[in-house]
Amino acid sequence: MEGLTGRTAVAQEPQQVLTPDGELVGEPPLDLDDTRRLYRAMVAARLYDRKGSALQRQGRLATYPPFEGQEAAQVGSAVALRADDWMVATYRDAAAMWFHGYPWELLLLQRMGDERGGAPPEGVNVLPPSITVGAHLLHAVGLAWAERLQGRDRIAIAYFGDGATSEGDFHEALNFAGVYRLPVVFLCENNQYAISTPRERQTAAPSIAVRAEGYGFPGVLVDGNDLFAVYRATAEAVARARSGGGPTLVEALTYRIGPHTTADDPRRYRSEAEVEEWRRRDPVERVRRYLERAEAWDPGWQAQVEAEEGAAIEAAVERAEAVPPMEPEELLGAMFASPTPQLLEQARELRAALEEAGERP
Amino acid sequence: MEGLTGRTAVAQEPQQVLTPDGELVGEPPLDLDDTRRLYRAMVAARLYDRKGSALQRQGRLATYPPFEGQEAAQVGSAVALRADDWMVATYRDAAAMWFHGYPWELLLLQRMGDERGGAPPEGVNVLPPSITVGAHLLHAVGLAWAERLQGRDRIAIAYFGDGATSEGDFHEALNFAGVYRLPVVFLCENNQYAISTPRERQTAAPSIAVRAEGYGFPGVLVDGNDLFAVYRATAEAVARARSGGGPTLVEALTYRIGPHTTADDPRRYRSEAEVEEWRRRDPVERVRRYLERAEAWDPGWQAQVEAEEGAAIEAAVERAEAVPPMEPEELLGAMFASPTPQLLEQARELRAALEEAGERP
Amino acid sequence: MAVLNMVQALNQALAQAMEADPRVMVLGEDVGRAGGVFRVTDGLLERFGEDRVVDTPVAESGIVGAAFGLAVGGMRPVAEIQFMGFSYPAFDQVVSHVSRIRNRSRHRFTAPLVIRIPYGAGIGAAEHHSESSEVIYAHTPGLKVVVPSRPYDAKGLLLSAIADPDPVVFLEPIRSYRAVREEVPEEPYRVPIGRARVAREGTDATLVAWGAMMREALGAAEALQAEGVSVEVVDLRSLVPLDVETVVASVRKTGRAVVVHEAPRTAGFAGELVAIIQERALYALEAPVVRVTGWDTVVPLKRGEHHYLPSVGRVVAGVRRALAG
Amino acid sequence: MAVLNMVQALNQALAQAMEADPRVMVLGEDVGRAGGVFRVTDGLLERFGEDRVVDTPVAESGIVGAAFGLAVGGMRPVAEIQFMGFSYPAFDQVVSHVSRIRNRSRHRFTAPLVIRIPYGAGIGAAEHHSESSEVIYAHTPGLKVVVPSRPYDAKGLLLSAIADPDPVVFLEPIRSYRAVREEVPEEPYRVPIGRARVAREGTDATLVAWGAMMREALGAAEALQAEGVSVEVVDLRSLVPLDVETVVASVRKTGRAVVVHEAPRTAGFAGELVAIIQERALYALEAPVVRVTGWDTVVPLKRGEHHYLPSVGRVVAGVRRALAG
Ligand SMILES: Cc1ncc(C[n+]2csc(CCOP(=O)(O)OP(=O)(O)O)c2C)c(N)n1
Ligand SMILES: Cc1ncc(C[n+]2csc(CCOP(=O)(O)OP(=O)(O)O)c2C)c(N)n1
Ligand SMILES: [Mg+2]
Ligand SMILES: [Mg+2]
Fold first, then answer.
1. Of chain D residues 13-72, which have a CB less than 8 A from chain A?
2. Residue range A299-309: average pLDDT?
3. Position B361 pLDDT exceeds 80
4. Predicted local confidence at residue A359, as pLDDT
5. Mutate which: A92, A111, A115, vs C, most C CBs within 10 A
6. Contacts A201 to C, Cβ<8 Å
7. Phi then psi dihedrals of residue A86, to 5 deg
8. So what's the pLDDT on residue C1?
9. CA distance C105 to chain B (A)
């Protein structure tokens, strides 16, 4: 009936370039060298992820939110950025952040409970990982806007999960981006769960991507475990943003293989069979098979990559753990450019309490 | 391209039954008797609206938000409800609220600055008008949910403007309604402006209605100045809700002929020509022409309606103005079922201050 | 009598309230299948079904706004916000609507709902997981604000909160969830909202605390006892309504007072207590009321958290300051 | 020198800041074409164009969240929230992000933005248009909170706020917007954030107030003068950082203090002042510090509003109570 909005004209099948078996079903958007580079990055990311969980079990990290299964969604999108583009991502996006320049060491340092991990090196335009769900989409909107107002062509990308799409800030962010046609890419890693809540209880929408129309810009649904598909869609979105074409919502269908965090027990809300099914669509193995077929992978290289990346991660752990704790004045000293009289007094009070307690000041 | 969401399959032309000239272009969903009843209600509403602005100019109301031009959107939708259905509406929805049982007298009393205007009679399931923009959509969601949980078949309707659709709560409300398939109707009176901000700067979406798909339920776009089209769409939505079919988003395209409130100067942001164009689509005159054609209207009846409804409104004003002010204890006495010790003490303090000041306690 | 920790006591209260009244329901993020991130709602879904134990989308304003409508519509919702740091997106619903509908409608509509919020630091959590912003709720007219410090009160206060005709913000000290176990009667009972509890009697100074800080308060009292200083410890239990009599009576007796909270100092709830104490008992005060609080900073992450939270040592020092005058 | 009201002074400050620094921009609901519902941004769109004077969708979290990103990205946004009652949907962005990014990133990223919020009662407005919830911002670490009471300070404080390297919540007393006119220098100048002002000298008692309540404070001082009582009036101007010295010095001199605010009493900012006064000057106090405040209710609508707001009479009575001890 006229006036009644119906289903979109376009099928909701996710874009795919590489099948789970590593076979091409489309044009590969990256050459073999680049693919090897990204494969290596995904292997490194997985090593880091395993290390994170292991450190947590040993009590060396507080909690840790594993991203196993989401490596292609993160690396495949991050590689589409220019080095100086803004990235605003979540606690689960270590791979994307690292790929965009945020050192493992600092990601670890923050997870060890040290605020200094929140300060990436100058020139790395990545905000510290967002712990709140949803709010940071607006930050990407503002950053993209700031770039345009200052006459630069940097864009901003926001990473977020399926759960985040239910927050009011998701809506306000996409709506602002649409109204001002801002150079921003919204990258939803739909990993099927928000803690225990499955995607179909998060929203009755047929997809997240379909929502883009309600903000007046394109949405794309891709196989998030397909490095090529993620890269292609993100690269298109980035190009659109950089050339003044406005925002894009990219939904990458993926899966969180591990628990929500090391404190979570996923057996309470999903079956082992479901996890197994997704393991068969593993994003790293998929690229390995592709490379192997193309004779661009062999076990020797794999061993070398693992050794080198593993060593780099070990070194990062060591450096992070070697960082001495902050003195009280430094701990209390970052609320303002210069502390208020109240904060100065409180730092003195803390120092006095420590001295009284006989702790080394 | 596969995976890329496109425009919806359905054209974004608003549904219409009655043209601005009062000619039918579809099946009339109401018989002549009902149409006369609704015409009378719209005439009453317009008299009330004019009275509201006049009272404000005389300093007898604080501010007043006129709804002229939106009578069909309000009355045509409210008539689709059952008497015991819930209504949650805004400061601009006096016509809908009154039609659903909220007395003029109380609407006026609240606008005069007396909280007792916020208490509709027992059995009238209408919340006091929402002053905040957006939040109340969630209240309708919760009310609809409460009804279903208690095994009743009442539904809830939320009225809101185009501006409200940009608030995060709009999104969270529609998403909850979709997830739980709640018996709720979202009635957007898109009157083209949120104070000074025109609809096209509110969102880049092609319509508000199109957003419904992103929540997994139908959206409908109607000519909001067409009593029949509004009624038909709302009646369908109400029937769907009541029968367990879940929510609907109805977008009624209309126009606010007057200022945002009596404190606003619309010449700052829109042209007189634009207003004139919308005056020609007047929702009340449209039905009058239709009735006249059907020989169901004559000037004598018009005069009688205006006299009777005008007298009722005058009487309501008198009653509201005759309400004596609240005593301090009553004024401070509605924060809790029984006041806290703090509030009791504060009421005593106020009483003492008044006595000291020589005011009649 | 069963010996329970606070999580178990709260779980029992919820189950008993749901058993007794079909209008009581629970909603929030991960409260169903997962039983809540702290397991407070564990087993409720299995027992009461999906209609009454509802996993919601990740949307705090949605949770509270919908719970508001549910309450106005006749239900008795108990909404869970996962951590206090995530209560802010719902702040508008709480402040503008939940707390006000009774006043706005002159008792015609009411919102008898409970908002359960785990709060507080001390577990080395990520940012936003350690907040203690009780004062923003205490300052909001129309809300009751309750903070148990031990399993017994947790159960009794939660049952009171659910039965209350008005909205209650129910703050649960994360650090105390499993730290203390004590005997908790099996049958339902209520601890009245608005009554403080003298947790320990003493004569030389009064310590006022609530929630997780009760541990430091009692620890300090214990430590000072060894030095021959007798400290009375008042557990507020409710911030609103505040039990002024119990606090003032204690200070009148001891002449010295220390207020402890983990929230930042500036404009924290201690200010209210100091104001009231000096309004009612200035001439009994032998020294300024001392505030031992968190600093005016974000709660530091794990490595610095112990520098932020009032410790037994800092509370002891605070009492000494009060004694010295 | 031009004689301006506060709206004009603020408008001038905005125009001068935008003139001087291309990074300064204004965004909010109806700030552009309409010039703001109070006309504070009047004429800026015409002068500085759509890029720098931005009408936004009706979305407060969006306004503040986007302004945060703009600030981190190098701009100097001045965001307007239309009324304080509509600042709550943005509360999460303010509390969780605006106030914290510097600390979270150890100075690597900063959010130098200003959030202008008209606040306060006294104009008989609809519900939500009369709020005075400054304490929720004052309690939030990482924010500066500023409240001018007169045109001169409004201009100078706004220029300081825009230049400040940290986020500033800038509260504008609606009732004072057009009530007072005074000479305001044409050239840009700054009133430092964190300094109170002795608005009237006196010896018998100290009245502390800010924003719109300065009128009642000064009115009460005037009325008491007639009876031979000499009242010193301190205009705080900044709540954070608080100018403790000025307040304490005055109370040390007079020995009696009254704090006035229109916010509800419980956990209002007066508590902070009382706590500090008795911490620093207990032995100088000859009587309890008196609080003259709004009640623990929603601000009543027009017909009852005068019963809520502290009046000159109530402030005078408060001073008398402080004098009586
Ligand atoms: C505003 C807010 N609400 C709630 C939480 C608690 N929480 C942390 S992660 C999470 C689920 C997020 O799910 P999703 O967005 O899908 O991301 P994922 O964890 O799956 O990567 C929740 C509810 C939070 N961090 N922030
Ligand atoms: C949360 C909130 N933000 C801002 C306002 C101020 N305000 C009042 S009405 C209005 C415009 C609303 O526009 P729309 O939703 O289109 O309704 P209309 O007034 O056109 O009927 C605004 C911004 C408010 N009342 N509530
Ligand atoms: Mg997820
Ligand atoms: Mg509108």
1. 23, 25, 51-52, 54, 56-57, 59, 61-62, 65-72
2. 98
3. no
4. 54
5. A115
6. 55, 57
7. -85, 140
8. 86
9. 4
pLDDT tens digits along B6-31:
444 444 799 999 999 999 999 999 99
The span from the CA of B50 to the CA of B64, in Å, is 10
Q: Are strands B86-88 and B156-161 parallel, antiparallel or unpaired?
A: parallel
What is residue B283's predicted lDDT score, i.e. its pLDDT? 98
Which residue out of A71, A133, A192, A255 has the highest number of ligand 1 atoms within 8 Å of its CB and is therefore the one to mutate?
Answer: A133
Query: Measured between CA atoms, how close is D169 to chain B, in angstroms?
Result: 21
Phi, psi for residue B224 in degrees, rounded to 5: -75, -5
Q: Tell me what pLDDT residue D230 has.
A: 98
Closest approach of C22 to chain A, Cα-based (Å) = 24
Q: Is D109 helix (H, G, I), strand (E, B) or coil?
A: coil
Q: Would you put residue C106 in left (φ > 0), alpha (ψ -120 to 50) or beta?
A: left
Residue B359: its pLDDT value, please? Answer: 54
The predicted pLDDT at position B315 comes to: 98
Q: In the predicted model, is pLDDT for residue C287 greater than 50? A: yes
Going by their DSSP bridges, the two strands A86-88 and B248-253 should be labelled as unpaired
CB A78 within 8 A of CB A99: yes
Active-site residue, selected from the candidate residues C97, C107, C129, C306:
C129
Backbone phi and psi for residue A189, each to the nearest 5 degrees, phi listed first: -90, 90
Helix H or strand E encompassing B197: strand B197-198
Residue B1: pLDDT band with limits 50, 70, 90: very low
Which residue has tokens 């001439």? C283
pLDDT tens profile D230-271:
999 999 999 999 999 999 999 999 999 999 999 999 999 999
Cβ <8 Å between D89 and C85 = no
Residues paired with residue C257 on neighbouring β-strands, in sequence order = C206
The number of helices, as runs of H, and strands, as runs of E, in chain D is 12, 14
Contact C295 A115 (CB under 8 A): no
| Residue whose token pair is 């007395």 | B103
Average of per-residue pLDDT across C194-222: 98
Q: Which chains touch D (3 or more CB pairs under 8 A)?
A: A, B, C
Please report the sign of the dihedral spanned by the C-alpha atoms of residue C40, residue C44, residue C50, residue C51.
Answer: negative
DSSP C299: P
Q: What percent of chain A has pLDDT over 70?
A: 96
Positions in chain D short of pLDDT 50: none
Residues 185-244 of B with CB under 8 A from A: 201-207, 209-222, 233
Cβ–ligand 2 contact at B199 (below 6 Å) = no
Which residues between 236 and 275 in chain C have a beta carbon less than 8 angstroms from any beta carbon of chain A? 265-266
Catalytic residue set of D: 129
* Whether residue A297 has pLDDT greater than 70: yes
* pLDDT above 50: residue A156: yes
Residue B103 clears pLDDT 50, i.e. is over it? yes
Reported as a pLDDT band with limits 50, 70 and 90, residue B293 is: very high
Taking the C-alpha atoms of residue D325 and residue D322, their distance in angstroms, rounded to an integer, is 5
> By the 8 A CB rule, do B315 and B104 touch?
no
pLDDT at residue number A360: 44
List CB contacts (< 8 A) between B63 and chain D.
125-126
Given the residues B82, B201, B269, B348, select the one marked as catalytic.
B269
Contact between residue D189 and residue D277 where contact means Cβ atoms under 8 Å apart: no
Q: Is B260 a catalytic residue?
A: yes
Q: Active-site residue B269, yes or no? A: yes
Which among D176, D168, D159, D151 is positioned nearest to D71, based on CA atoms? Answer: D168
Distance B161 CA to ligand 4 centre (A): 4
Q: What is the mean pLDDT of residues A165-169?
A: 98
C238: β partners:
C146
Helix (H, G, I), strand (E, B) or coil at A309: helix
SS3 D247: helix
